[in-house]
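Here is one such protein, fold included:

. . .
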Amino acid sequence: MTSRAGLNEMSDELAARWDRRMEAIKNRVKAKLRSAHVFLKAAQTQEATTIVPYTAEDDSQKLTTEATGQTLPLGDTLWKSALPIAEEAYQTDLMQGMLHNSLSADSYAPFNLQDMAYIYHSIENWELLRIHAVAVGDDDIQLFAESRRDRYKGYLNDMMKGWHMIGDIKSSVTLTPAVKQYIGFQHTVFKNPNLPLLYSLIVLMPCERLWAWIAKQLYPNMTDKYCYYFWANGNKDSSGKVEKMANTMYLEDHAQIDLNRAIELYTIAMTCEREFFASATDPNIVPSIIVPDWVKGDHDDDHDCMDH
């Protein structure tokens, strides 16, 4: 069974940390709005001493607009930009085969093996993110990366037990070109210490949101008699923790990243997801992504997974 939902959980302690960061942003924005409202009222009445009580709605759109000048949270902006690719991922033979109960086990089994390989290499990427967080002093991201790294280890172990596998995934599973490219792309972003941490979260966001989004499309059209009902049922409930964290970091300082570059990274990651799904029924599919030079920096070298 391949369900990513369990990987997306967060400890109560870590969730509380991010709630406090978001509350600090809300208070900062409220203060800004309150000051602007008082100034405007004083200008209208010519009485600087007149203070009108301020009440603000805490909806995400208003908060985002006041903090960044945009009308949508970062995650929604990026998702909207790549929605056509997400729809293409839903139309792959893998997902349509699940929907119509016609997907061959000969396609689903290799898909699971490739997913195990992806999880294996992602453990290293989470460790790279942890190291980067330590270097810049972001304790919350450090703890989050540690938690995800350990969850991925446990998830991989459970998957291997389910498939009665022992040994090293790295030497046991030959990566398809699509998965190899996906892992290499993420690794390139994670290992570049000159990129803001937020970019690393951005390349992780499509996976978390796409799997849940597709599962929600499949689930209402399935019954528990369908062969792949378990996939839709197991993946439809994602907490979206990575996206929520990215939204919070963007509200804290939206100038830390370039929105156009963020869209570029998100689009590449979404394309990787689509090609990962497509490779389940066409393992020799040629990856279409090109990693931008600005992502590679001065630390670009071939990820060791490329040798497989």
Notes: The chain is about 65% helix and 0% strand. Residues 36-58, 302-308 have pLDDT under 50 and may be disordered. Residues 5-307 form a domain with the Heme Oxygenase; Chain A fold (CATH 1.20.910.10).
